[in-house]
Design a protein that fits this description.
- It is found in: Cell membrane.
- InterPro entries: CbiM/NikMN.
- The protein is globular, with a radius of gyration of 17 Å.
- 71% of the residues lie in helices and 4% in strands.
- The termini are far apart.
- The longest helix has 30 residues.
- Strands 1-2 form a two-stranded antiparallel ribbon.
- It is mainly alpha-helical.
Amino acid sequence: MHIEPGLLAQGKLMFANVAAVAVLAAHAPALLRRPALWLRTAIAALFFSVLMQSFHMPVGPSELHLIGAMPMYLLLGFLPTMFGFVAGLLLQGLVFEPQDLMHLAVNALSLIVPLMVVHHTLGRAADGSLRRIVRLDAVYYAGVTLMVGFWLALGEQATALSDWAVFAASYLSVAALEPVFTFALVRGVATVRDQAWARACLDERLTASA
């Protein structure tokens, strides 16, 4: 989902910046009204940052990352995951990859737009079952690869469709393995959902009484 610096012209970067600010501004009031979500956003940002740094590999015109979107979404909720993506990318840029700050909005939208699609469709009935998690991951990573294709199509240099296809195919491994990780994590955390720390840190869908 990583777009290399220099691929997009300044005007297109400005478009991405405006779009990202608009999306975040539309959701910021809901986040600010609930202080409990601030802690979950910090957890999401750290979790996402750790996964990104634990594995990243250049593939075709972009990079293959571990994202962990569905564990964050199911355990922490929609808003913490959305803002956690942005905070995690900002943290990565400030600490590890300063050159990536140029494409902060581009990379954030590549993660946020598919999350919004998932949340407003399948996510409404997310229940933590393995079948449901597989569907969520399939839709999410299809969205991520399409977003990368969108940015590449806007690039100053032409990118061969076959190169994008190689990148898209690389995410099949993530889409195949992450549901198992997510399922195990959700089931494990559900066993401690009645504890005070869990109620503070986890989404109410998980910690609500059965």
